[in-house]
Design brief:
The chain is an all-beta fold. The protein folds into two domains: 233 residues; 93 residues, Macroglobulin (MG2) domain (Immunoglobulin-like). The strands form five sheets. It has a twelve-stranded antiparallel beta barrel.
Amino acid sequence: MKQLVLIFVVLSCTTFAQITITGNDVLSIFAVGNSTTIHQDTLQSMVDIGSPGGGNNWDFTGLQTNLTVDIESVNPASTPYASDFSGADFCIYSMGYSQGFQADIWTYSSVNGFVNNMGSATTISALPGFVTTIKNDPGRHTFMNPSTYNSQWMQTFNQSIYLNGGLITSSSVSLNAIVDAYGTMTLPGGASYQALRIREEITINGGTSVGYTFVTLSGVQVNVDAGSNPPNSGTITANSTSYNSALATSVEHISGLPHNFNLTQNYPNPFNPSTKIEYSIPEAFFVQLKVYDILGNEVATLVDEEQSAGTYRADFNGEGLSSGLYIAQLTTGNFVHTIKMSLLK
């Protein structure tokens, strides 16, 4: 069964020399309700993957899309297959495709010394009543907790596929991964981000494949399926690619054409645990709306995309955060504005 498999990571970085990811970063990005759209190109293409080390400038503006998949982070306990993945810390629900048919896919992950992909459950619209479950035992290590440039890990795990609870096949899988490069990447639309490159080799049933994943602070990422024996630098032939913008809470376009940039005070304020933030942009811009704690640490990315002129409302959920003062910052064009928000539990 061919299934979309993504490495979901969030990176905490200040400069190219100091890029680190922790399990808490991941849990923050995959807070319940966060969502994004994955843009896939299932055809072969030429992609410049840069080179090991620092100072890379990855230009991904030419990536194409022939398939999109919407994903949303949901509470594992609320899903129909939670009992098959006991101990999951977050679950990604996607409306995608499996075996050429529209499918609903729930992918479960846990966080401890690693961020682990525990497996998934898939239902296909053309086959009502059938559930395909993939279980990784132990969970597949997405990355080390914490991870930074030059982090590397190896693992052997068992991957089993079930149909309505009956075992279909089971295979031993070996992986070898390294964070081998860092730099700046630019996506279609022109937005640029500091990023890490993860090179992962997967061996199953005697065959080895290589994938490159480029990951950023806000959860933006690019995935490149590089085939069985690709070069480790320069322009390569990719079997497929995908990219996505940051996972963010729901954002509602609530009115028409404002005359000025504006970021209004959140309401309610103080709040527990959720609040709403409204902002206005008078013309189309790339918009970022982020939340920081009082020490300047980013705790959430609410908006990270191109938006048309209008007034918008974003939801922020402070569940899992401590009581205290938080800063919301809107950045678009040359306009930068902040507000103070009080979380009171």
